[in-house]
Amino acid sequence: MAGLLRRTLPRFSLTLTVLLSCSCPVLGKKKLYIGALFPMSGGWPGGQACLPAAQMALDLVNSRTDILPDYELELIHYDSMCDPGEATKLLYDLLYTEPIKIVLMPGCSSVSTLVAEAARMWNLIVLSYGSSSPALSNRQRFPTFFRTHPSATLHNPTRVQLFQKWKWTKIATIQQTTEVFTSTLDDLEERVKEAGIEISVRQSFLSDPAVAVKNLKRQDARIIVGLFYETEARKVFCEVYKEKLYGKKYVWFLIGWYADNWFKIKDPSINCTVEQMTEAVEGHVTTEIVMLNPETVRGASNLTSQEFIAQLMSKLGGKNPEETGGFQEAPLAYDAVWALALALNKTVGPLKAKGHRLEDFNYNNRDITAEIYRAMNTSSFEGVSGHVVFDAQGSRMAWTLIEQLQGGSYKKIGYYDSTKGNLSWYGNDKWIGEAYSSSSPPSFSLSLSLLLLLPAVLLQLHPLPL
Ligand SMILES: *[C@@H]1O[C@H](CO)[C@@H](O)[C@H](O)[C@H]1NC(C)=O
Ligand SMILES: *[C@@H]1O[C@H](CO)[C@@H](O)[C@H](O)[C@H]1NC(C)=O
Ligand SMILES: *[C@@H]1O[C@H](CO)[C@@H](O)[C@H](O)[C@H]1NC(C)=O
Ligand SMILES: *[C@@H]1O[C@H](CO)[C@@H](O)[C@H](O)[C@H]1NC(C)=O
Ligand SMILES: *[C@@H]1O[C@H](CO)[C@@H](O)[C@H](O)[C@H]1NC(C)=O
After folding, report:
1. What is the pLDDT of residue 6?
2. GO MF terms on file (predicted)?
3. Angle at 272 between CA 267 and CA 273, to 5 degrees
4. Backbone angles phi and psi of 28, in degrees to 5
């Protein structure tokens, strides 16, 4: 496929260049096209809320006189269904039909992987609003990739900080054997070792965790880090209940994406009661990416995060946010369009100095791509999802929220700012065991109390695996 595309490229793009330079502007504004893939169905139907959010951002950008005043951004989008096979076909359409796209915006890790790997051959920048796979943090394989969604490994520095805070020196792990958890655990293991913490037991399972849980018990694991999806989490904790691997002597730290009441959901694959499950999961700790700016600030788009949510809800026309795919990630899609617009705006001056213009972009032009890359690489603005900056691999840096299940519901116990390496603590973590309590004083800050004031629904919607 890739070979075929490459072979037919030069002749075709020559034709496109000619066509583009002839399509003379009607209203004085030249159009720049974004080629986007929004999954409306499939494993993560995130386009349902992310597409309207991106369109909101686009309307605002186009109406601003201080951003790209000579240009109008237009979105050309298809439904990838979160399926790499379907996305291959759509990518072909995006690249081989006019007009020329200046950037590609995919969502879903599997689709972003495909797009980001192919894009280098077309000198295209790729900007994803919804991909968490750690594998995408790889500048060799994906040299032009950026994402406003943080990598799943973003939490790892937070986790190590917590382990150190609680003076854990020896931990056990149990993981579901899936790429995202394996790469997350590999990264965590490296960081944990640097911090002088030992991983004494490492267990894994494909779909039935019974044996792995029994092994944890046999090897006397006490502090257990678990990495699995919600469905598997229920199976694990039903086994944990049967093996009595919970309570005073044990601490569980979960890595995954869980709904608030995941352990109460009726599941024919387990035979534990809700009461038994609730007993087994009590006290566990988990972390979550903060995707909505907890502070009331007017960022680059002059909208606060609360105003953004209100406008998005009205755009969704009364649809239930909990039943709208990608509602939680919508701020990331909105900020992705802003990151792009601000970056393109930043290139206008430098390009002019070199005798180039954005509208001269074609798939053979590396100079313009390099300029856009540089501008994206140095992004730094206040968005509705928080401060937007990318790390050296193009992944978003963001805050993580730390939660503990107390009395059957999740309580916020602190948060971590990975750009500053700063752990802020409420001091309300509770430990039934004797050995693991933390004794540091609570440290409230202004932003922390604002975090507390946020409507619970906005922060409590746990992310879906992307
Ligand atoms: C867009 O770029 C121009 C200079 O080319 C600059 O004056 C303006 O402040 C930029 N707009 C924003 C919102 O940064
Ligand atoms: C659950 O099922 C297993 C066998 O699948 C059985 O041994 C066990 O007793 C059952 N537990 C309960 C609480 O029904
Ligand atoms: C930003 O929004 C506020 C409230 O809607 C408005 O009063 C203000 O004029 C806006 N600022 C700019 C620069 O558009
Ligand atoms: C992008 O930023 C990173 C630091 O985050 C820097 O090391 C790298 O050189 C920059 N790349 C370019 C092309 O400017
Ligand atoms: C860390 O966070 C606390 C509370 O939010 C704040 O007072 C402190 O200045 C921060 N430190 C750094 C280095 O940013």
Report:
1. 38
2. G protein-coupled GABA receptor activity
3. 90
4. 85, -15
Q: Is the dihedral of CA 254, 175, 322, 334 positive or negative?
A: positive
Atom of ligand 4 nearest to the CA of 392: 5
Distance 157 CA to ligand 4 centre (A): 21
Nearest ligand, CA of residue 444? Answer: 5
Q: What is the pLDDT of residues 427-465, one digit of tens each?
A: 888 887 644 443 333 333 334 434 444 433 333 333 444
Ligand 1 pocket: which of 62, 66, 302, 338 to mutate (most atoms within 8 A of CB) = 66
Q: Cα separation of 242 and 244, whole Å?
A: 5
Q: Note the pLDDT tens digit of each residue in 380-402.
A: 999 999 999 999 999 999 989 99
Residue nearest atom 2 of ligand 1, based on CA coordinates = 345
- The tokens describing 282, both together, are 């009590």
Strand duo 125-128 + 71-78: pairing: unpaired
| Higher local confidence (pLDDT), 295 or 4 | 295
**Residue 143 C-alpha to ligand 4 middle, in angstroms?**
12
Residue nearest to atom 5 of ligand 5 (CA): 445
What's the pLDDT at 294?
A: 83
pLDDT of residue 433: 64
pTM reported for the whole predicted model? 0.79
- 271 φ, ψ to 5°? -120, 25
Distance CA 294, CA 286 (A): 19
The residues lining ligand 3, judged by C-beta closer than 6 Å to any ligand atom, are 298, 302
Considering only CA atoms, which residue is closest to atom 8 of ligand 4?
Answer: 392
Percent of the chain that is helix, strand, coil (3-state, to 5): 40, 20, 40
Phi and psi torsions of 409, nearest 5°? -140, 155
* Beta-sheet strands, E only, within 269-428: 285-289, 381-383, 386-390, 396-397, 399-406, 409-417, 422-425
Q: What are the φ and ψ backbone dihedral angles of 203, each rounded to 5 degrees?
A: -115, 150
CB of 170 closer than 6 angstroms to any ligand 4 atom:
no
Tell me the C-alpha distance between 302 and 63, whole Å: 13
User: Residue 428's pLDDT is what?
Assistant: 86
- Distance from residue 118's CA to the centre of ligand 5 (Å): 41
What does the pLDDT look like over 115-150, one tens digit per residue? Answer: 999 999 999 999 999 999 999 999 999 999 999 999
Q: Measured from the CB, is residue 392 less than 6 Å from ligand 4?
A: yes
Alpha-carbon gap, residue 444 to 427, rounded angstroms: 9
Which ligand lies nearest to the CA atom of residue 342 in the structure?
Answer: 1
- Which residue's CA is minimally distant from atom 9 of ligand 5? 422
Closest ligand to Cα 422: 5
> Residue 143: which residues within 8 A CB-CB, separation 6 or more?
120
| Ligand with the closest atom to the CA of 389 | 4
